[in-house]
Design a protein that fits this description.
There is one protein chain. The protein is an all-alpha fold and about 60 residues long. About 70% of the residues lie in helices and about 0% in strands. It has helices spanning about 5-10, 25-64. The protein starts with a helix and ends with a helix.
Length: about 60
């Protein structure tokens, strides 16, 4: 994902959790959903990577 400035240039809405959604158009709402789904996937990948690293570390320390 790009920076906020890059997202603004690409026409992505500046979405903030909890903001008043009535000010956004249907297209902006759809783009926000898409961005949020991509961000959820990115977060889930990071969690999986950290879980994997943690499991590997635990295996090393339990083995010694």
């Amino acid at each position: 994902m790009g920076t906020e400035d890059e997202d603004a240039v690409k026409g992505n809405p500046q979405f903030t959790l909890g903001q008043d959604l009535s000010t956004l158009s249907v297209e902006e709402l759809k783009r926000s959903i898409d961005l949020l789904q991509k961000e959820i996937a990115r977060i889930e990948q990071e969690i999986a990577a950290k879980d994997s690293t943690k499991a590997a570390a635990e295996a090393v320390f339990k083995g010694g």
